[in-house]
């Protein structure tokens, strides 16, 4: 198929066609991917031994780019291949790359292949002649994109040759959280340095671009705070009783309830409690976090949604009541449950934001029977609550609103699987659904039909997500509505983001107006700095990992502080799953429900969940390795580590300060069958 580009697309691909590394900056709906297909085509036609890698940051974008763009235009003349995380192809990545001209994969798959020592899997950056990086504003800090480009930059600084050309695509590089022009310029330069690229945008055809990508009409649907809030007040009263149960110095140190600050405070408080082995503190902190969650939900969706969060927490826990603290906390909820539920069902005090959302939806869907809308909400839970609300709302049902949920794909229970997500988008395109309720992360880069209504509902995001959301409203006369509370944080953030959006384009302007020499000097300096920082950080990380010897580290249950094992009992599988191989460990836990995972793994499958035998804390699950070895796989968040340097808690296993050895199947099995002399 022939590719015809619009005038502004022609303009922004010029640098890339000359072989320069460049970032294409075009708004959502401007046709970035098509421009990239064009560059890839010209590159394949004119370069000897050309090999192109298209990198995306989300699994579902692999198929989308393959089916909608790269394969239709290039599939006839070239060997185009899509490799997604679920396919077994990824295990032969190295060979696949040899046998194709263009591959599309997630950055993670390429990163794994760059790290792999197995010949079938391994590739080098220099095996490629062009790297196309989608949503390239993510190329910063610890992201996978930046790990890949970090290698690239290091090779460049070391003056290695034959590096591939780079083409980045973004709807906005953002300001990196900066609010001054000087800092925003630094941020844009850093992104340019990370991608070793200049940034290009249309200069001559800006008005044409505006025609193609019209901006929606923005409307602020602002509501007043509830005048009376008996349900919220009751939650706060219960929290104050928990505060009184704790030492007063502790309670006084916490910031205002119902805020993110408060959440941060109780998360820290729990850690302090673990270090001091003070169950009163840890348990109160954990429960207060649940109450605070309920308050935050109460602030966004229905009261009953907030009630359900607490009710689930108290009634589905496997935890045992060990001491007075547990009895107090469980008792407090049990005593108040009935009253709390009654208050939650009193429609007079329902969340005014929902009434406003209803008016906004009704207006569009009554006027235009063919309306299509997206509501963006903060959390996965939020999307589910709104979905329930839409379906239970007679007024919305009368105008035939049919909603679907769109959330990110992942491994958690609340995550969608890829097929479900695909079907939802398809149903929306075909009109079986006319309202999507989405988290703003899930939506990035997805090929969603044009909407005439985009609602940002009680949402806090950065300017990049805000711009991408606004880009969804592309139908004629479309409306972009912000539903928020008068004087609230969401509204302030919305205004800040508008300012940051214009700051971003000013910053880009300034970067583009630098002389090539000045730009090159700045970029080189940033790249050299980044390489030095990375080398030093690696060295420090290595030293940290060896701080304690594994036999000095004791594992304790985070719920009841019982000692359950040593660091030397831990082995890692596929560099991410951590199992305890000591047969003694079994007596510390009991097993529960069977775990089901969407994904399949090369060597193992999930078994049953495991809980602390003493306090019931959720520890992780058993896994079945090669169908025979049953091993407890532990979540580091459920434990604390007692070391010669004090007690520590970690979020991820990779942060622990001792070396964990790789799991060795033969070694493990032969220790169980000592009669077998396998060594000879
Ligand atoms: Zn325990």
Automatic annotation (TrEMBL):
Pfam (any one): ResIII
Signal peptide, first to last residue: none
Lineage: superkingdom: Eukaryota
PROSITE patterns: HELICASE_ATP_BIND_1, HELICASE_CTER, RLR_CTR
Subcellular location: Cytoplasm
Catalysed reactions, semicolon-separated: ATP + H2O = ADP + phosphate + H(+)
Entry EC no(s): 3.6.4.13
GO MF, one annotated term: single-stranded RNA binding
Sequence ranges assigned to domain Helicase ATP-binding in this UniProt record: 13-191
Record CDD domains: MDA5_ID
Chief place of localization: cytoplasm
PANTHER family noted in UniProt: ATP-DEPENDENT RNA HELICASE DHX58 (PTHR14074:SF7), HELICASE WITH DEATH DOMAIN-RELATED (PTHR14074)
Family to which this protein belongs: Belongs to the helicase family. RLR subfamily.
Protein name per the record: RNA helicase
Organism listed in the record: Ctenopharyngodon idella
């Amino acid at each position: 198929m022939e590719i015809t580009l619009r005038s502004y697309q022609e303009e922004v691909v010029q640098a890339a066609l000359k072989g320069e590394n460049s970032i294409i900056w075009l708004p959502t709906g401007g046709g970035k991917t098509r421009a990239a297909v064009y560059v890839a085509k010209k590159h394949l036609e004119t370069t000897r031994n050309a090999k192109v890698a298209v990198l995306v940051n989300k699994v579902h974008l692999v198929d989308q780019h393959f089916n909608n763009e790269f394969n239709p235009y290039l599939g006839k003349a070239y060997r185009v291949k899509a490799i997604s995380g679920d396919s077994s192809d990824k295990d032969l990545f190295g060979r696949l790359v040899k046998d194709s001209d263009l591959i599309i994969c997630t950055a993670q798959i390429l990163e794994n292949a760059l790290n792999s020592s197995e010949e079938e899997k391994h590739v080098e950056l220099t095996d490629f002649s062009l790297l196309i990086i989608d949503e390239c504003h993510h190329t910063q800090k610890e992201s996978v994109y930046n790990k890949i480009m970090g290698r690239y930059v290091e090779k460049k600084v070391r003056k290695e040759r034959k590096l591939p050309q780079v083409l980045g695509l973004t709807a906005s590089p953002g300001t990196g959280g900066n609010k001054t022009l000087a800092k925003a310029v630094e941020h844009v330069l850093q992104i340019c340095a990370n991608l070793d690229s200049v940034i290009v945008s249309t200069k001559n055809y800006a008005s044409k671009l505006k025609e193609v990508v019209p901006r929606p009409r923005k409307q602020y649907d602002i509501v007043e705070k509830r005048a009376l809030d008996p349900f919220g007040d009751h939650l706060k009263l219960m929290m104050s009783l928990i505060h009184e149960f704790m030492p007063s110095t502790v309670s006084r140190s916490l910031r205002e309830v119902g805020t993110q600050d408060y959440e941060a405070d109780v998360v820290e408080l729990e850690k302090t409690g673990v270090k001091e082995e003070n169950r009163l503190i840890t348990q109160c902190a954990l429960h207060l976090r649940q109450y605070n969650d309920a308050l935050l939900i109460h602030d966004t969706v229905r009261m009953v949604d907030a009630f359900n969060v607490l009710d689930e927490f108290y009634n589905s826990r496997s935890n045992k009541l060990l001491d007075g603290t547990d009895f107090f906390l469980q008792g407090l909820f049990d005593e108040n449950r009935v009253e709390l539920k009654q208050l939650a069902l009193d429609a007079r005090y329902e969340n005014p934001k929902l009434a406003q959302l209803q008016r906004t939806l009704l207006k569009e869907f009554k006027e235009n029977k063919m309306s299509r809308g997206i509501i963006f909400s903060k959390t996965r839970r939020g999307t589910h609550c709104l979905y329930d609300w839409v379906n239970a709302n007679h007024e919305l049902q009368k105008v035939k609103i049919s909603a679907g949920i769109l959330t990110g794909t992942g491994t958690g229970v609340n995550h969608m699987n890829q097929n479900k997500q695909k079907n939802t988008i398809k149903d929306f395109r075909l009109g079986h659904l006319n309202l999507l309720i989405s988290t703003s992360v899930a939506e990035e880069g997805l090929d969603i039909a044009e909407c005439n209504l985009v609602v940002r509902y009680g949402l806090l995001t950065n300017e990049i997500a805000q711009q991408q959301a606004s880009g969804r409203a592309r139908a004629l006369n479309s409306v972009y509505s912000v539903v928020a509370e008068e004087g609230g944080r969401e509204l302030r953030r919305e205004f800040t983001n508008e300012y940051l959006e214009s700051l971003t384009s000013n910053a880009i302007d300034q970067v583009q107006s630098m002389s090539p020499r000045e730009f090159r000097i700045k970029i080189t300096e940033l790249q050299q700095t980044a390489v030095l920082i990375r080398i030093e950080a690696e060295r420090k990380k290595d030293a940290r990992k060896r701080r304690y010897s594994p036999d000095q580290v004791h594992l304790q249950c985070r719920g009841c502080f019982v000692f359950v094992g040593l660091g030397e009992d831990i082995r890692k599988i596929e560099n991410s799953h951590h199992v305890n191989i000591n047969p003694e460990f079994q007596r510390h836990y009991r097993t529960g429900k069977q775990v089901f995972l969407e994904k399949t793994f090369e060597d193992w499958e999930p078994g049953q969940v495991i809980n602390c035998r003493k306090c019931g804390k959720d520890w992780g699950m058993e896994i079945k390795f090669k169908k025979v070895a049953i091993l407890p796989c532990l979540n580091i968040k459920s434990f604390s580590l007692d070391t010669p340097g004090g007690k520590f808690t970690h979020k991820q296993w990779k942060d622990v300060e001792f070396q964990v050895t790789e799991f060795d199947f033969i070694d493990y099995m032969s220790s169980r069958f000592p009669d077998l002399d396998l060594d000879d």
